[in-house]
């Protein structure tokens, strides 16, 4: 179902650029994040036909005769929810090899084909992948942020912002799914998320894997919501179920494949051996996570431990969303030594590093920069800036290329 309210999607420009020189463009991301709407907004203006594989008749036809199905397609077409017909990829490859005109096919998918090598390889060199996330705070306000550029230029200047306080919890709870945001109350959003999880389990999970214990998937998602922004611990997850660790690990990979969970890899090099090499787990959207936890904005704001975890995931996802349309690619990691010194997020761009630490507090002090100073010391030749995100008012420097930055500045206007 498309949104009744159209928010600006800043991935539109990268999508149109890709269509200008690439035969196949795949927009992938979680179900209901806005893929169909974005593809139709762009496609309708350029004369694309539209076919969805949520339609059982189209699905059956494509599965029965993928080559014939592709041969009968219009010259330019949107194929929606293409992960439901993996048989189609080889047929699309043959069609593109015969006619490689740019912009022939816009595909959308609610599963990550990069985690299915045979599908990804079948269109290698012929297809560009574009990851669409749920709505960012930038898109909700209608103004693209320059936060990542400012971080890599180390151009933060002293400035005052209005503190968010409890309103920050409201943003975390709201999340970024367009349809959920249309619901006027927390109760109605929770009902939407409940139906959303049911659809994921009964359609996407069932389509992608033969899982006997489907009822374990929602419970695993609830457990993962409580572990967001923590180091991955499969043993702890497995202990809550009567399932083996390899089985739980397979479930986690499956949930990552449908964009519900995300692993944040560790940053390490041979320069320092005493680093933790375990990834962090992040939930895909804080609104969905809070709903699974059965909490509201008031409850998470009072529970400072879970608020800190959710805030870290919220900031991480905001930066990932901004990076998806940034002119220069950005890769994300976390940094943690065996002594417990850590940086929540390390952004890497063209070999340069920026550290981002998140604190669920209205005040900061010198000790809060311990991890960022360690990152600067260890990678002095690559380090650009260290940013401590907090729920305060003042953007201010804390030594050489270290800054305290209000969380609001991530999506608010920055003057460099």
How would you explain this protein's 3D organization?
- The chain is of the alpha/beta class.
- It folds into two domains: 12-131, P-loop containing nucleotide triphosphate hydrolases (Rossmann fold, 3-Layer(aba) Sandwich), CATH 3.40.50; 137-410, no CATH class.
- The chain is 41% helix and 18% strand.
- The chain contains 18 helices and 15 strands.
- It has helices spanning 12-19, 35-45, 56-64, 66-71, 88-98, 117-122, 137-141, 147-153, 166-174, 178-181, 186-208, 216-226, 234-239, 245-257, 286-293, 297-302, 304-323, 370-378, and strands at residues 24-28, 49-52, 77-80, 105-109, 127-131, 159-160, 230-231, 261-264, 280-283, 331-336, 342-349, 352-359, 383-390, 394-397, 402-406.
- The protein has a seven-stranded mixed beta sheet, with helices on both faces.
- Strand 12 (352-359), helix 18 and strand 13 (383-390) form a beta-alpha-beta unit.
- The protein is globular.
- The mean pLDDT is 90.
Cα-atom Rg, whole angstroms?
Answer: 22 Å
Given as residue ranges, the uncertain stretches (5+ residues, pLDDT < 50) are none
Structural class: alpha/beta
Q: Give the biggest beta sheet.
A: 7 strands, mixed
């Amino acid at each position: 179902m498309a949104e009744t309210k159209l928010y600006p999607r800043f991935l539109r420009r990268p999508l149109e650029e890709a269509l200008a020189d690439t035969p196949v463009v795949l927009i992938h991301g979680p179900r209901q994040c806005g893929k169909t709407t974005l593809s139709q907004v762009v496609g309708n203006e350029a004369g694309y036909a539209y076919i969805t594989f949520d339609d059982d008749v189209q699905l059956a036809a494509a599965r029965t005769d993928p080559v014939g199905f592709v041969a009968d397609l219009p010259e330019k077409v949107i194929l929606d929810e293409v992960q439901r017909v993996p048989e189609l990829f080889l047929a699309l490859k043959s069609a593109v090899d015969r006619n490689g005109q740019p912009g022939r096919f816009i595909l959308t998918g609610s599963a990550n084909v990069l985690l299915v090598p045979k599908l990804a390889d079948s269109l290698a060199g012929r297809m560009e992948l574009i990851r669409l996330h749920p709505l960012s705070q930038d898109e909700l306000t209608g103004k693209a942020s320059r936060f990542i550029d400012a971080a890599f230029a180390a151009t933060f200047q002293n400035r005052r912002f209005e503190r968010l306080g409890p309103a920050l919890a409201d943003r975390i709870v709201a999340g970024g799914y367009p349809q959920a945001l249309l619901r006027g109350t927390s109760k109605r959003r929770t009902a939407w998320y409940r139906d959303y999880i049911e659809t994921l389990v009964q359609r996407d999970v069932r389509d992608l894997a033969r899982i006997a214990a489907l009822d374990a998937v929602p419970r695993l998602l609830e457990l993962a919501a409580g572990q967001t922004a923590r180091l991955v611990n499969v043993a702890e997850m497995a202990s809550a179920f009567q399932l083996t660790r390899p089985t739980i690990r397979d479930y986690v990979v499956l949930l990552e494949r449908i964009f519900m969970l995300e692993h944040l890899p560790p940053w390490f090099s041979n320069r320092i051996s005493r680093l933790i090499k375990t990834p962090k787990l992040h939930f895909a959207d804080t609104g969905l996570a809070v709903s699974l936890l059965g909490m509201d904005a008031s409850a998470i704001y009072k529970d400072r431990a879970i608020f800190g975890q959710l805030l870290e995931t919220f900031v991480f996802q905001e930066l990932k969303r901004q990076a998806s349309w940034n002119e220069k690619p950005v890769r994300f990691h976390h940094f943690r030594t065996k002594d417990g010194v850590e940086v929540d997020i390390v952004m890497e761009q063209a070999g340069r590093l920026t550290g981002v630490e998140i604190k669920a507090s209205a005040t900061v002090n010198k000790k809060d920069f311990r991890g960022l100073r360690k990152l600067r010391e260890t990678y002095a030749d690559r380090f650009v800036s260290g940013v401590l995100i907090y729920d305060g008012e003042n953007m201010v420097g804390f030594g050489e290329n270290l800054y305290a930055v209000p969380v609001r500045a991530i999506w608010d206007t920055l003057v460099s």
